[in-house]
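Example 169, ligand adenosine monophosphate.
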Amino acid sequence: MDFKAYVRNVPDFPVPGIQFKDLTTLWKDKEAFHKSIDALVEHYRGKKIDKIVAAEARGFIIGAPLAYALGVGFVPVRKAGKLPAEKISESYALEYGVSSLEVHRDAIYPGEKVVVVDDVLATGGTCQAIIRLVESLGGEVLECAFFVVLDALKGEEKISVPVYTLMRY
Ligand code: AMP
């Protein structure tokens, strides 16, 4: 399936100069949504994975159905101030702005193998912050999975583990 046909490019959102890859146009289509999640499921089926770790908020749209289909746990990484129990945090630079992410301290146990999922890999700051969170809890990130990798931003060079993606621009 040509997933790129379902991606809407929005120039200058949320700030001038950004080519925003809008995946809502893919997710709203029942066949494209199903087949795109299935593509990730097929890639990870049979691999020894304990948990899918996904970034708020668009990572949840991909990460939750993927974890469900693989029969593994799901761990949400959230923006600062949202998680209720004891947590650790990491700051990171975005393609536009700075932010910080948090995960519950008991979300991942030492030695667990996880896949990190998000919608778009841009500069790589978000993904690398999530890898640091997982590793500081003793988890091992096997791979990071995306719907879209923006090659020109060279985010992949910042990621210390292999990257899997459905689309590249
Ligand atoms: P980065 O940390 O720069 O790799 O940015 C990744 C995060 O920002 C992801 O969670 C994306 O959802 C979002 N993002 C950054 N740039 C874009 C873009 N051009 N189009 C869509 N989402 C983006």
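Summary: Residues 49-168 form a domain with the Rossmann fold fold (CATH 3.40.50.2020).
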